């Protein structure tokens, strides 16, 4: 019985990440149309929240039935991890919501790059925006995308390669262009020339300040 309950918690813990990764993968398949980041964030929050509800309910069931495996340190640690993951997703959602409320006509920048099932092979990061590093008031990084306030900006894009936990900086690209409000830009890399170009852009069908 101990092993059964332990693996039940492990399955719930892993399943939420599988579903969340499948959800993130859907965005990569549809780079030719606008997507609502708030809707994506709420869906992920519901997935992690559902895992918490199921885990806590199962935990309480074991308590009421006086199962000795309830007090397994491994099962308890996994339950705590599930709650922590949900708390992290909730904090990210609240930060995203607060930023979008301030900049409802934001634009989105997406890096079109091959991805693995777990992590991107290459990542795009805005190193500086208008000469300011980590300009949080003008940009917000979320779900492998970057939300940017509209207007004329000077971008310093950092191209990085990630292998497991190791992240290597490859090179930087400087670009100046006028970011249109409520527009999604898909950036693609020319690896040989070490340059970026806009492969596709589209406007939002409506204001995306609400999910």
Total number of helices: 3
**What composes the largest sheet?**
5 strands, mixed
Query: What is the β-strand count?
Result: 9
Q: What percent of the residues sit in helical stretches (DSSP H or I)? A: 40-55%
Strand order of the largest sheet: 4-5-1-8-9
Q: What's this entry about, in short?
A:
This protein has 211 residues and is of the alpha+beta class.
Which labels suit this protein?
211 residues; alpha+beta; 5-stranded mixed beta sheet
Write structural notes for this entry:
About 40% of the residues lie in helices and about 30% in strands. With about 210 residues, it is of the alpha+beta class. The chain has 2 domains: about 1-100; about 105-205, no CATH class. It has a 5-stranded mixed β-sheet with strand order 4-5-1-8-9, covered by helices on one side. Strand 8 (about 185-190) and strand 9 form a beta hairpin. Helix 1 runs antiparallel to helix 2 (about 35-65) and helix 1 (about 1-30) packs parallel to helix 3. The longest helix is centred in the middle third of the chain and has 30 residues, at about 75-100. The termini are far apart. Residues about 205-210 have low confidence and may be disordered.
């Amino acid at each position: 019985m101990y092993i059964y309950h332990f693996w039940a918690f492990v399955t719930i813990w892993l399943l939420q990440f599988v579903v969340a990764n499948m959800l993130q993968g859907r965005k990569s398949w549809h780079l030719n149309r606008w997507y609502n980041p708030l809707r994506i964030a709420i869906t992920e929050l519901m997935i992690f929240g559902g895992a918490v509800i199921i885990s806590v309910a199962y935990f309480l069931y074991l308590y009421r039935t006086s199962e000795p495996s309830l007090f397994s340190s491994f099962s308890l640690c996994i339950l705590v991890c599930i709650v922590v993951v949900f708390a992290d997703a909730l904090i990210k959602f609240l930060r995203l919501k607060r930023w979008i409320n301030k900049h409802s006509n934001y634009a989105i920048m997406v890096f079109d790059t091959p991805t693995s099932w777990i992590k991107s092979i290459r990542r795009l990061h805005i190193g500086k925006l208008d000469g300011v590093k980590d300009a949080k008031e003008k940009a917000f990084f979320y779900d492998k995308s970057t939300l940017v306030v509209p207007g004329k900006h000077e971008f310093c894009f950092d191209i990085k390669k990630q292998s497991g936990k190791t992240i290597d900086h490859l090179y930087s690209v400087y670009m100046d262009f006028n970011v249109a409000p409520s527009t999604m830009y898909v950036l693609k890399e020319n690896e040989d020339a070490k340059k970026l170009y806009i492969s596709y852009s589209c406007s939002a069908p409506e204001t995306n300040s609400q999910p």
